[in-house]
Design a protein that fits this description.
single chain, alpha+beta, globular
Amino acid sequence: MLEEQFLAPNHHDRQAFSSGVGELDEYLRRFAAQQSKKGITVVRVLVDTDTPSTILGYYSLSAAQIDAVQLDERTQQKLPRYPVPCFRLGRLAVHSAHHGRGLGRLLIGLAVERCLEARKHVAAYALVVDAKGEKAKAFYEHYGFTPCRDSPMTLYLPLGCMSQAALPGRH
């Protein structure tokens, strides 16, 4: 059974994780635990309960803000003219042995679910992500993220009208 857990550096095998994207693998191996410990980000991993130390995928979440002028015009009309609070999906990766199985979709759904839960306590308008390339950008757009006006590799997903049923990975 698949289970989402907080990254536990002494339990989860970060060295064996390989997504095929060196920057994402390096982050998990070298920086994820440090940044979690310092309160910079929260890193969650997806594991199979039969092999709980093997990381199938991971994502990181942190607080963020986005300038309202980066959002589409219709959205801008609804928002104040200053930076809007958001959550940032800092990293998301799936082990290359599990590509094509829908785990990326599941991880986005889990991240959105965490954001919606946190939104009950701390206001945030959207989930923001910086795509690491055109393939990643297309992936996020497929799940409803919209590119920012002046920085198209930064995308956002408004959280206000999200319901649990609308979450990626929940269909």
